[in-house]
Amino acid sequence: MATVNWRSLNELVRIQSKWVTLIAEQWLTEKGETLEYWRVEKADSVIILTLQGDYLICLPPTFRVGIRRATVDFPGGRVLPDQTPMAMVPQILARELGTDTDSIQAIASLNEQPWLINSAFSNQRLWGFIAELAPTAPVPRGGSKFRLESPDIPQLLAQLECLQCRAVLLEWLSQRRQA
Fold it and tell me: Which domains are delineated in the chain?
């Protein structure tokens, strides 16, 4: 892959919050052109595939402002500045599924390094996890269960609007096939 020799000239604007930073910069291209470039840097995210026996547990449909309707999703959230992605898993499961720590039998990471979610305008790092719940752990009212070994998984893939949720599910399925 060829190296592009662009050089940062100046940061014009930086607006920062706990979850997102908006940055405007000037860059000098390899052709000597000066470009203004705006980008968003988002806090790291965690998506959790929650297993209970032979089932994959999804949240009750959640309203998404960006697409103006409720969608099926996996538990997930942003990584707090003072936390590790792994430490966020029980907190996210408690918040989104009502799961207490004693109900979580195992947590495993799908990726050793974060996946970079990159577009022309936005950057974010994504961590995928598998959490196994005890067979007796309650699941949220209105949540969905999808059987792991059935046509349920293709149906789930067809329902998932969140590209990050789809990516984590497809990676997990790929790793299962290779094992």
Answer: 7-41 (no CATH), 43-178 (3.90.79.10)
Whether this prediction's pTM lies above 0.90 is answered by: no
- Which among 57, 51, 99 is positioned nearest to 74, based on CA atoms? 57
Tokens 């979610």 sit on residue:
117
Alpha helices in 2-103 (DSSP H): 85-97
Encode pLDDT of 128-154 as tens digits. 999 999 998 887 777 889 999 878 999
- Structure tokens of 143? 């949540």
Q: Which of 173, 97, 95, 85 shows the shortest CA–CA distance to 138? A: 97
Q: State the Cα torsion 127-130-134-136 to the nearest 10°.
A: 90
